[in-house]
Structure formats: structure tokens, C-alpha cells
Design brief:
single chain; alpha+beta; 11 helices; 12 strands
Length: 327
């Protein structure tokens, strides 16, 4: 006879396989009495599994839906399928679930036996998506970082900056953020003594992770917005502010999360903050969004729009704009 804990797992596996089981059928499969089956079902219910009694001549049991998600038991094939699906979702196949997929994948891969982990890696390596994100990040890197965030463990990593310089950094990882088509890590940089946002496709974690740390107060309540500001505005030479005469939701649809920050003013207007090392780049970016706007800052950009306005008027021969010289 199986020990109680092993028998409970076996009972749960049986209940997940079929819709209905009679008490005698379960007793026969488990090698116990019907009375023992009833006691084991009660234990599963205490653990949060919604095991319902069925009505019939003999009576039986059915695993139903509950108010909360209990632990899920998967066989080898199911575990591989779930892991591959989570890896696919983490690469941005379905918008909005990338970060959740990485968290779930980190939990699953932590307990996967080596034989199953190698199967998942083989499937992932042999599969090519038709549409890849701009910067592909391996699932191993994402799950390593996610595990360090969850376990509050320091992370040592090799990092290549936007200027191409290489460095080794030690950080206290806080959150992974999927913005635009890229992954970013928001972490406290112990070498720079401040919060930083790192592009994950430019880093390589060193394993194993470092010692545990006490989490610091995060740099902002909205980490996603903080990451967008860091990579889309703060690091550039010119940081612009515009009033857009359109609802924030419409503007946000055309501004990737790593290209600017959109904040609603009212139902019909919003503020766009964006950055660039080029005044022409900023002017082109906001103009091609397709909405009316007013530029507020920086002063250099306000003056640049005045110059562009005169130049365009000159090209079109608009009266009062200088027109082409008479020939």
C-alpha cells in the first residue's frame, strides 16, 4: 500500500484524468478500501481541491472548479508542453502576458528534472518563430533573473552599455519589465550606488546568484512607468514635453513603451514626454504620430520647430513664409 502522501498525489492524478470516478474504481486503482478513499478525498478538500460527490447508484467523485487555484499536478509530457508554451509567451507572442509568463516559467523550471529541462531546451532551440522581437532574450536568462528577483538575491552580470562599453556589475534585482519589444531589468546598482534600468538582451548573468539582500524602497510606485521613463526619456540629451490633442489611450497605441511616456490630462488631451539625441528626431517622431500638438520644452526644440515651419513654408512657396526667390 502506498504511503498517505504518495497516495494523495496518485488520487489527485487520477481525478485529473477523467471526469467521474466511482469510489470502488478509485479504491481498486489505489489498492485501498472505499472508506480510505473517502478519507483521502476529505484531505484533498482540506488542501483546497474542489472534489465533488456525484450522484448515482454507487456514488463517486469529480474534480471541479474552485474559488482559488490549488497546486497543479502535471505528468512529464504536460510539464514539457506548459514550459514550451510559457517560453513562447515570454517572447512576446501574446501581448500583455510576457512578465506573468516569465514568473510562472521560473517557478516551473526550478522544479523540472534535468531530463525534462533538456527536452524543453531542445524544443525551444529547434523552433523558429515567424515574427521575432527586436531583441531576442533566452528563456534561461529571463528565468535566472526572475528567480533572483523573487529570492532577493544579488546578481552579478556582464553588461554592455548603449555606448558599446563592457563592464561587470553587481546589482540587487527588483523587477523585470517588458516595454515595447524589449525586456528591461530595474535594479539597484551597487557599483553606481543608484537605481538603474538595464536592457536584458545586453546582459549575461553570472551563476550562481549572490547572497540574499533586504529589498530597498523601490524608485517608483509604477515600475513599468519608471522603466519607460528611464529608457525612453531620461537617458537622452534632449527631453521633450508635448501636449497632445487626443485621448491618452489613442496616443499610447502609437507610442511604444520604450519610446516615451503618455499621461492623461483629461478625456481629450494628454502629455507626451519623449527623449532623443536629435532635435530632428523628436520633431519627426511627434509629427508622424498624426495628432495635433503643442511643444513646450526644451527651448531648443521650440526654436527648432519655428525653423522647420519656415523651411517647409519656403519649400511650398507659401505666402508670408519667404517663398522661393524669383528667378
Amino acid at each position: 500500500m502506498l504511503e498517505t502522501s504518495a497516495r494523495l498525489l496518485r488520487l489527485l492524478s487520477l481525478l485529473q484524468q477523467h471526469r467521474d470516478w466511482s469510489g470502488p474504481q478509485l479504491a481498486d486503482r489505489l489498492g485501498v478500501t472505499v472508506r480510505t478513499v473517502r478519507r483521502d478525498v476529505d484531505r484533498l478538500r482540506e488542501l483546497g481541491y474542489p472534489v465533488h460527490a456525484t450522484i448515482g447508484n454507487i456514488g463517486g467523485y469529480r474534480l471541479g472548479t474552485g474559488a482559488a487555484m490549488p497546486p497543479l499536478l502535471l505528468d512529464d509530457e504536460e510539464a514539457v508542453a506548459v514550459a514550451v508554451g510559457l517560453r513562447t509567451a515570454a517572447n512576446g507572442t501574446v501581448a500583455g502576458i510576457e512578465e506573468t509568463s516569465v514568473r510562472a516559467l521560473a517557478k516551473l523550471e526550478q522544479i523540472l528534472p534535468p531530463r525534462l529541462r533538456s527536452r524543453v531546451s531542445a524544443l525551444d532551440g529547434a523552433t523558429v518563430a515567424q515574427h521575432r522581437p527586436a531583441a531576442v532574450v533566452s528563456a534561461e536568462v529571463l528565468t535566472t533573473i526572475a528567480a533572483a528577483c523573487r529570492g532577493h538575491q544579488r546578481l552579478r552580470m556582464d553588461y554592455r552599455g548603449h555606448d558599446g562599453t563592457d563592464s561587470t556589475r553587481t546589482v540587487e534585482p527588483h523587477k523585470l519589465v517588458h516595454a515595447g519589444r524589449r525586456w528591461y531589468l530595474v535594479a539597484y546598482d551597487l557599483d553606481r550606488d543608484g537605481w538603474r534600468t538595464f536592457r536584458v538582451d545586453r546582459l549575461q548573468p553570472k551563476v550562481p546568484s549572490g547572497p540574499r539582500f533586504t529589498p530597498r524602497e523601490p524608485p517608483a510606485g509604477d515600475i513599468g512607468g519608471y522603466a519607460s521613463w528611464s529608457v525612453g526619456v531620461d537617458r537622452y540629451r534632449y527631453q521633450a514635453r508635448f501636449t497632445m490633442y487626443a485621448p491618452a489611450a489613442q496616443v499610447a497605441e502609437r507610442v511604444p513603451a520604450d519610446a516615451g511616456v503618455v499621461e492623461a490630462v483629461d478625456e481629450r488631451t494628454c502629455t507626451l514626454r519623449a527623449g532623443s539625441n536629435s532635435l530632428d528626431g523628436l520633431a519627426l517622431h511627434v509629427t508622424l504620430l498624426g495628432f495635433d500638438f503643442t511643444v513646450h520644452e526644451p527651448p531648443e526644440l521650440v526654436g527648432h520647430f519655428t525653423t522647420l515651419h519656415a523651411r517647409i513654408g519656403h519649400a511650398l512657396g507659401t505666402p508670408g513664409e519667404g517663398g522661393p526667390p524669383a528667378g
